[in-house]
Amino acid sequence: MYQFTAADAAKACSASLYDPFSGRLIPFGEFPGWREVGKTPLSFLCTDSREAEPGCLFTAIPGERVDGHRFISAALEKGAAAVLSQRPDLAKEFPDPRVLYVDNTLDALLKIAAAYRNKFSVRVAAVTGSVGKTTTKEMIWTALSARYNTLKTQGNQNNEIGLPRTLLRLQPEHEAAVVEMGMSGPNEIRPLTLAARPQTAVLTNIGVSHLEHLGSRENILKAKLEILEGLAPEGTVVVNRDNDLLGAWLEKMENRKNPFRILSYGLEAGAELTARELQQFPEGCRFRVCLQGKEYPAFLPCIGKHNVSNALAAIGTALTFRIPPEQAVKALEGYVPSGMRQHPVTEGGICFVEDCYNASPDSMAAAFSAMAEMECPQKEGRKILVLADMLELGSIEQQAHYEIGRQASGAADMLLAYGPLARGYISGAKDSGMEQAEWYPDQNSLAEALAELLCPGDMAWFKGSRGMELEQVMAQVRRALAERRC
After folding, report:
1. DSSP label at residue 389
2. Residue 268: CB atoms within 10 Å
3. What pLDDT does 363 receive?
4. What total number of domains does the chain contain?
5. What span, in angstroms and rounded, lies between the C-alpha atoms of 327 and 209?
6. How confident is the model at residue 300 (pLDDT cuts 50, 70, 90)?
7. For residue 30, what are the contacts with CB-CB under 8 A and spacing of at least 6?
8. Are residues 278 and 411 in the same domain?
9. In angstroms, rounded to a whole number, what is the distance separating the alpha carbons of residues 349 and 458?
10. Which band of pLDDT confidence, cut at 50, 70 and 90, is reported for residue 339?
11. Domain CATH number, residue 18
12. What distance in Å separates the CA atoms of residue 263 and residue 317, rounded to the nearest whole number?
């Protein structure tokens, strides 16, 4: 953190300190000697006392299993410059003036991050959507880095802890930043975008992820549109016109006087920024980017039409940062797919596609489309889907798994699955005429069956929600096959 002290943090979140003489909490600015108390510079944010060290801001987060307040002493002993606590009942136990008492530590953390972000004139892009957020964020970072020193969200740290963690990493040398914003319910993106104050907001799609908490796709759209509430005046919204709900929203916006500009992208007709002549190869996609009557030849080193759409979002964002389209297109040739996202590896003549980061009906359909357009390592090879449960679908979970099974029958030669909900895949696939579709009760039985089944020339595509840890099955299969080859 750059020139930001404990006093700056305390002022940002209206913190109080415990006065042992009066036995009560006093607003930080009224505490005797507050300037001396708060002069220590803050170095980084810490929510795990095991990572605490001199200069850190330790934030005690109350959780369902573990309450971070239990570790305040450990953080202080390790030299934390300041601690955020929402437990005034512990004030007598921790009379240390480094402990800042607030109503809610997560809210305070966002206020601190907002105050710190305001120290910089950096231009920010914010990304949200039901699927593809992290991939799109990474592509945007790749495109922006062609011209600017760009900060980005690490991994998928996109919530009320992850976003402040990203903003508090800003340094004077940063010229741009791209942040990811996620949610599982309403009113969760609003405080994130108000803290980040983006000049560009990117909406990738509206699917059915988190339907369990929001009830309908329309409610998901409403929650995602909260990102606009922090958008800077005359900012730009980069929107996927191919998505049905976002397309309908765009049509409504076109007939209104909006405080922001809109740039639409997509693979279908009607978008301002689009692509054509798409060709897919094992090493990636070739296509032509079309904008304002001009075309730019492009290559993206990853597979799937959905990733071409994500690339268009990145190019559109780069345009709002005044990066010429040809420069953004060229930069994306160097894009490196992040972990467990449609990452193909060929071993012993078998192509393994690791796509285990997450799963929803939308991302499943995108995976099937990409798989259908890919060639096996050998012409006689088989396409084998290895699936696990899709989580957080609420009342539609049974029907969604059945429908995905029906779709799978047209994308692959075989389907193997595990998980309590994965039985639905098998039912749907068999009802659609797929003869080789089998369910397994656990990871080990699935891995053993798949290791016996696979032959050189085959392609095995692994897809499931993060909580199903399907990558462990893939690793077990690869080990078994490697031992067999030895």
Report:
1. P
2. 12
3. 87
4. 3
5. 34
6. very high
7. none
8. no
9. 7
10. low
11. 3.40.1390.10
12. 9
